[in-house]
Specification:
Helix content is about 45%, strand content about 15%. The protein contains 13 helices and nine strands. To bacterial alkanal monooxygenase alpha and beta chains.
């Protein structure tokens, strides 16, 4: 049976507010639990007027209190922004209050622009450097204390979250495997790397005490509606996000589908947008089920996590509901 989970960025829309976005996140989680979703993760972004998810530990605490069975966690904590001891204490506290329900996904990206990264006093290390690796090893050690350790994350001594390494590269997949950690691949960011990164992870995997077998999760952009035409219309804001990113002008709340429909693209722009949007899984339930089933089979992923950027709250819930039913119907 397909294991389904949700990645939520608490998107802020034109005419709305960060407060409303965060409240919608807290309203969504219990509904997702009712629909049978396995995990609910929140992201870490900073100085982004279109995303309200800036403080994963705070949101995870509220999500855990709003649900009873579903796993909740970060997707992820951008570790170079934080001292590992603080992260271990925060998530150790969450586990102490909600045993066996908390995930700690960690990543390397700053989750922001470099000016804001400096304001966060982020560790300055180029991709592939040893600084991030040492931070991850330090965090894992703090969450698995040994007698005589000079520094202990006290709440974590009684139980630790499941640590997932996030990434979109072959290098990150290999590193997760070497540590014996589960690996969450960001297909919504670099779909072309999915198969080689997951293969590198499995090839490098060394069993650990917590995870004797490799475990993978694939995060993908997914929008489901009753018809493909409606799903395409709902995806209009996502196309605008891609276009703005290409132009380097992402500086306001997400546009509505109505405003997205008013925009016009040149032939060259339209060709690029079609290429960039091709990895988004958008359509009616049967179309989406077929595409996701093929994607999971091709990558060998154990679990699917969906990022669903839909303006209207009720239509967002409808997308999650249709997806859950479609994937369930496709299982024996």
């Amino acid at each position: 049976m397909t294991i389904l989970s949700i990645l939520d960025t608490a998107p802020v829309w034109q005419g709305s507010s960060p407060s409303r976005a965060l409240r919608e996140t807290l309203r969504t989680a219990p509904e997702a639990e009712r629909m049978g979703y396995h995990r609910y993760w929140v992201a870490e972004h900073h100085n982004a007027p279109f995303i309200a998810s800036c403080a994963p530990p705070v949101l995870v605490a509220l999500l855990a209190a709003a649900t009873s069975r579903m796993r909740v966690g970060s997707g992820g904590v951008m570790l170079p922004n934080h001292p590992p001891l603080v992260v271990a204490e925060q998530f150790g506290t969450l586990v102490a209050l909600h045993p066996d329900r908390v995930d700690l996904g960690v990543g390397r990206s700053p989750g922001t622009d470099m000016t804001t990264a400096r304001a966060l006093r982020r560790v300055s290390s180029p991709p592939g450097s040893e600084a991030y690796r040492e931070q991850v090893r330090e965090l894992v050690g703090l969450l698995s204390p040994r007698p005589g350790d000079p520094v202990v994350a006290v709440p974590a001594a009684g139980g630790a979250p499941d640590v997932w390494l996030l990434g979109s590269s072959v290098e990150n997949g290999r590193f997760a495997g070497e540590l014996g950690l589960p690996f969450a691949f960001a297909h919504h960011i670099r779909p072309q790397n999915a198969e080689p990164a997951l293969r590198a992870y499995r090839d490098a995997f060394r069993p650990s005490a917590a995870f004797p077998e490799p475990r993978t999760l694939l995060a993908a952009s997914v929008i489901v509606a009753d018809s493909t035409e409606r799903a395409e219309w709902l995806s209009g804001p996502s196309k605008v996000i891609v276009a703005q990113s290409l132009r380097g002008i992402r500086n306001g709340p997400n546009v509505t589908p109505e405003d997205a429909a008013k925009l016009h693209w040149t032939a060259d722009e339209d060709a690029v947008l079609r290429e960039r949007m091709a990895h988004h899984v958008i359509g009616d339930p049967e179309t989406v089920r077929e595409r996701l089933t093929e994607l999971l089979a091709r990558t060998g992923s154990d679990e699917l996590m969906v990022l669903t950027l839909v303006h209207d709250f009720d239509e967002r819930l409808r997308s999650y509901e249709l997806l859950a039913k479609a994937m369930s119907a496709g299982n024996p």
